Amino acid sequence: MSNTAWETLSNQAVATAGIVYFLALVVYLAEWAALRQPAADRELVGAGAGDAEPAGQAPEPATGAATPRGERVAFLGRLGLLLTVLGCAAHLVGLVGRGMAADPNRVPWGNMYEFTLTGTFVVALLYLVLYRRFGLGWMGPLVVGFVVATLMIAVIWLYGAVAPLTEALNSPWLVIHVISAIIATGAFTLGGIASIMYLVRMRAERRAEAAGRELSPWLARVPRLDALDRLAYRVHAFAFPVWTFAVLITGPIWAHEAWSRYWNWDPKEVWAFITWVVYAGYLHARATAGWKGRKAALLALVGLATLWFNFIGINYFSTTSQHSYAAERPEILRPAQVSGLSGG
User: Are the beta carbons of 137 and 144 closer than 8 angstroms?
Assistant: First the structure.
């Protein structure tokens, strides 16, 4: 295949992934909607299985024959998961095609569009990998919604044609540094989603208790607060050493190779270190001060904000960062940026 054919395949695969992810989102939302059991269906359940479940409470696993609603919810959940797998597969094809379209062939991390494609792919892949281990079925619409929205931003505002790597990026450290940074970014994002849902469920529980009612069906399906807190902690504990490896080890080594200095006070370097400090504080506070629950969730969200600002904001808005080439098409780089890439 020619380079043009590979690039066309990549663009088509990314578009296909976006459509399939969107369909998965629709199915996941339909699954949530199916949790709102109609009154007539509730009466049938009560007639056939004894006492009806409390209003607004998600059904427990069937103790007798499966209800029509239970079967419908299970089917939609399986269909949403299947569509997510298919979307992730198309996403991978888009990434591979992007790298094969370059001459010479390279990893698909030459600009901000490609970084974003890879970052969203890792978020979706980690969700699928951890799906059964941590029972993440409830997280499906949140993860897929995030991936769809970010892919739209990438395609509409960040897209750039395939081009050879710039001098600063043409290094073996590109693979080591970017892989570790993107894996950590994907894991931190999943941990952030768990932290957000902790705060949402905590507030909903307080309101429901004050009003003397049950949680809404979709929130009742979300794990209990202690389970959400443990999930967020475990994911962050995995991501932090990976981020440390990317930011404090491979990043400075690559910077020294490219610019003859381990630390340049570049805005991206500074924000990456700020992100590291926030997450280090999160883990330290949990381990020594016993921070759990709301305080830990809020601190995790501060870390998530610094992470994604560093990932997109610095690259896209900074005019002084030596990493700002990643946000622009190579053919329209400003002269100052070109001299910056060469280490001048």
Answer: no
Topology of 1-37+69-164 in CATH? Four Helix Bundle (Hemerythrin (Met), subunit A) (1.20.120)
Residues 169 and 163: their CA atoms lie apart, in Å, by 12
Cβ neighbours of residue 33 closer than 8 Å, sequence gap 6 or more: none
pLDDT in tens, 281-317: 999 999 887 888 899 999 999 999 999 888 877 766 7
Sign of CA pseudo-dihedral 203, 205, 206, 210? positive
∠193-194-199 over CA atoms, to 5°? 95
Residue 120 corresponds to which tokens in the numbers above? 């969203």
Token pair 């395609």 is found at 155
Contact, 95 vs 178, CB < 8 A? no
Tell me the whole-structure pTM to 2 decimals: 0.82
- Whether 111 and 160 have beta carbons less than 8 Å apart is answered as yes
Domain ranges of the chain: 1-37+69-164, 166-336
Q: At 59, which helix (H) or strand (E)? A: none
